[in-house]
Inverse folding.
């Protein structure tokens, strides 16, 4: 054992307290509220990376109490999806969450969130129609049930925490659109902040699922962000069609066959074939090795300013 371990490692290890029950969570938030605290919520499924941490830091900068939730939500996984192998490391997550500024982490078990069991759930929150029926919501893909699971758990978190602000990532662009719609339709008194996608130095969008990639697949996966860059270049040069073609070629060169690569209106998610003055999303989903990866770029044609 190295006796200099402490000297080499002077920073004390802190961990955010993990609350397991809804009652504890409500009590902690109520206490902070009594002191007039504003509350920020960062919902996650854990296995934290810089994308998650950017949301926590944003919440820290704006809110007095920062609550992160850590829950691998079974209702948003379809049969045959990766629920059982979804990567988990709670100890590391609690440390990283605290370092980024989370005051507490709500990390309940499945039975705490769904006390009647998954088969016994009687009430779902569901955004219907185009927003949840296309792209990942297409029945041939994850389907509308995926988003129903997301909106149900997020609605429950909103009811438990009653946050002033909730933070989401542009990485899951369709999810962000769906959540904004739920908040608007159900009058949730919360401001939704959607923050830019955090990427690895080589462009790959950070994702807990990147842990599934073999070294070779990790290299191939960089084609997704290159494809989106090509699409954006094409759009900015005035030809969305040529941009999408170039994007397809990038993927093909890497041996990647996308489930979808599409340009859509950033608010309505309607298909866009020609550029106009509305912000548009180019979104891609593709299997790479044993991972299913998604990524997107948000393009504001009118001011030639892009994010994500
Ligand atoms: P997840 O744990 O994958 O459910 O993600 C939790 C939150 O982090 C969601 O709002 C995601 O959109 C967001 N997020 C995931 N990856 C990134 C990323 N690379 N950059 C920014 N936000 C992200």
């Amino acid at each position: 054992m190295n006796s200099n371990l402490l000297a080499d490692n002077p920073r004390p290890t802190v961990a955010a307290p993990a609350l397991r029950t809804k009652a504890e969570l409500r009590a902690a938030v109520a206490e902070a509220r009594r002191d007039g605290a504003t509350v920020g919520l960062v919902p996650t499924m854990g296995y934290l990376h810089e994308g998650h941490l950017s949301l926590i830091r944003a919440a820290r900068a704006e809110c007095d109490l920062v609550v992160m939730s850590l829950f691998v939500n079974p209702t948003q996984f379809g049969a045959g999806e990766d629920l059982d192998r979804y990567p988990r490391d709670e100890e590391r997550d609690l440390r990283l969450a605290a370092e980024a500024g989370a005051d507490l982490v709500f990390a309940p078990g499945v039975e705490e969130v769904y006390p009647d069991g998954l088969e016994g759930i009687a009430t779902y929150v569901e955004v219907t129609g185009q927003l949840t029926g296309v792209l990942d919501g297409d029945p041939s893909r994850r389907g509308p049930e995926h988003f129903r699971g997301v909106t149900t758990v997020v609605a429950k978190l909103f009811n438990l925490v009653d946050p002033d602000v909730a933070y989401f990532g542009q990485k899951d662009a369709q999810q962000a659109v769906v959540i904004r719609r739920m908040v608007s339709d159900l009058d949730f008194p919360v401001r939704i902040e959607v923050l830019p996608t955090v990427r690895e130095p080589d462009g790959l969008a950070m994702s807990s699922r990147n842990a599934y990639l073999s070294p070779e697949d990790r290299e191939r996966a960089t084609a997704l962000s290159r494809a989106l860059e090509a699409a954006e270049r094409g759009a900015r040069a005035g030809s969305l069609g040529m941009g999408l073609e170039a994007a397809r070629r990038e993927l093909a060169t890497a041996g990647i066959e996308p489930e979808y690569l599409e340009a859509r209106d950033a608010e309505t998610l309607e298909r866009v074939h020609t550029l106009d003055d509305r912000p548009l999303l180019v979104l891609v989903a593709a299997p790479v090795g044993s991972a299913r990866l998604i990524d997107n770029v948000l393009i504001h044609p009118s001011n030639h300013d892009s994010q994500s």
